[in-house]
Amino acid sequence: MATSASQTLRTTPFLKTPSLSLSSRQSLSSAFSVALRPSRRFSKPLVVIVKASGSLDAKPTVLVAEKLGEAGLKLLKEFANVDCSYNLSPEELCTKISLCDAIIVRSGTKVSREVFESSAGRLKVVGRAGVGIDNVDLAAATEHGCLVVNAPTANTVAAAEHGIALLAAMARNVAQADASVKAGKWQRNKYVGVSLVGKTLAVMGFGKVGSEVARRAKGLGMHVISHDPYAPADRARAIGVELVSFDQAITTADFISLHMPLTPTTSKILNDDTFAKMKKGVRIVNVARGGVIDEDALVRALDAGIVAQAALDVFTKEPPPADNKLVLHENVTATPHLGASTMEAQEGVAIEIAEAVVGALRGELAATAVNAPMVPAEVLSELKPYVVLAEKLGRLAVQLVAGGSGVKTVKVTYASARAPDDLDTRLLRAMITKGIIEPISSVFVNLVNADFTAKQRVDVSLEGSILLCRQVDQPGMIGTVGSILGEENVNVSFMSVGRIAPRKQAVMAIGVDDQPSKQALKKIGEVSAIEEFVFLKL
């Protein structure tokens, strides 16, 4: 049985000049084209990204700010002008970015809000050659309509293998024993290790890398548990892993392996309090992000014997200072962020991020977008015929003011043979949002920033109800309409005006918490400078 979901937009039109419409403020021809081609390389959830028509007549410029494999550079050069400029200072990056359509970075370059502001709207794609995106200001990227893509699959195995390598090396004191032998010593009794078989490993973060570490640890005879509030239990059970609470994971584990992103929630998630709850003699591996561990607290835990050993590939500051107490600690094995450093992974990451960036610049589907609506490929094929239609319906809801009794209701219904939980309409919602916002805003809107623009940037909110007036721009208009609403005890949530030029045609948008009475709406319609208006109940 087909399932459906619907949303209703009710409109009450009041016309003073039937021949005119809200669309007369600006041309409503679409500024976007949409390409719906699947990725050649990866069978992943897909996302539509739009491009401005005519914007790619000339070759785009891609700034490669950190080392990238030759295979990836070759792909980029076939499509774009490639500028390889490494070790740029923040000031140099901000200066150069206004000439670039895309930038590719690894973990060492910060793509900050200042970078997006300095791009003056030209920067369309940020490619992160790797998994983590904590060095990219996602909020600023989204606000500026810039797509952020990463390369999450190519280095998964390499990172997992490095995690297992550190786990085994730590358990058997490989690094310390190696240094001892090279110093001319033979200390067999000092470097007695511990076995992995039968020990409990807590994998903190059951994503791509975490799950691969779990598979390999199971093969070593370890009992594996995991904490990840977003991981499906059936996927964990499929490889023999039990999902547990955070406290259960850290209090029962003999080994803890970290595989979580660095977010405000996970920052310093291992600290004095959490170390105090752990088994005495626990061993910790981190190939995720240095900031998830309070490094000073870890030193204290190592000195107290709570943590027997730690094996770390990442640090809060990279490279760490020469006198870093954690790095110099006898019971710490340290490597210089080598998680993805295999020949195979480096080539794979370069190709993956190059394909993602080129595809996004072409307006194709980006399989690895991290700040845009994403839908599975099979659902996308069902939605494809309705993508453009959804945008047009959004435009229609805002600008269509007909003669006579007018349009009373615009109802958008989603229907599918899929189960209710599988009715994914986020892409269509984004297109409708785009259609609603663009006719009444001068802000450039695309699928990346549609929701953010609606909530933060433009003057029109998609919540509550909206009164839109097309009027002559003149003093006192806000006060006049505001007074009418105030007399009716109608609370105003926002009020703003967009105009072509001073004392020319303008559109005033007023958000209200309550529906004005017909008498109030009539008074607004009688204001001489208001040529046409419509009340939208969302």
Poorly predicted residue ranges:
1-56, 401-408
Which geometry do the CA atoms define?
Answer: elongated
Number of discrete helical segments: 19
Report mean pLDDT, rounded to a whole number. Answer: 82
In the sheet with the most strands, the strands line up as: 11-10-9-12-13-14-15
Overall structural class, as computed from helix and strand content, comes to alpha/beta
EC number: 1.1.1.95
GO biological process, one term: L-serine biosynthetic process
GO molecular function: NAD binding; phosphoglycerate dehydrogenase activity
Subcellular location: Plastid, Chloroplast
Structure description:
This protein is of the alpha/beta class and about 550 residues long. It has 19 helices and 20 strands. It has helices spanning about 70-80, 90-95, 115-120, 140-145, 155-170, 175-180, 210-220, 235-240, 245-250, 270-275, 295-305, 325-330, 345-360, 375-385, 385-400, 425-435, 450-455, 475-485, 520-525; strands at about 5-15, 30-35, 50, 60-65, 80-85, 100-105, 125-130, 145-150, 200-205, 225, 240-245, 255-260, 280-285, 305-310, 330-335, 410-415, 465-470, 490-500, 505-510, 530-535. The strands form four sheets. A seven-stranded parallel sheet has the order 11-10-9-12-13-14-15, sandwiched between helices. A six-stranded antiparallel sheet has the order 16-1-20-17-19-18, sandwiched between helices. Strands 5-4-6-7-8 form a five-stranded parallel sheet. β7 (about 125-130), α4 (about 140-145) and β8 (about 145-150) form a beta-alpha-beta unit. The chain is elongated and about 95 Å long. The model is unreliable at about 1-55 and about 400-410 (pLDDT under 50). It comes from Quercus suber (Cork oak). It is found in: Plastid, Chloroplast. It is an enzyme of class 1 (oxidoreductase). Keywords: Amino-acid biosynthesis, Chloroplast, NAD, Oxidoreductase, Plastid, Serine biosynthesis, Transit peptide. Belongs to the D-isomer specific 2-hydroxyacid dehydrogenase family.
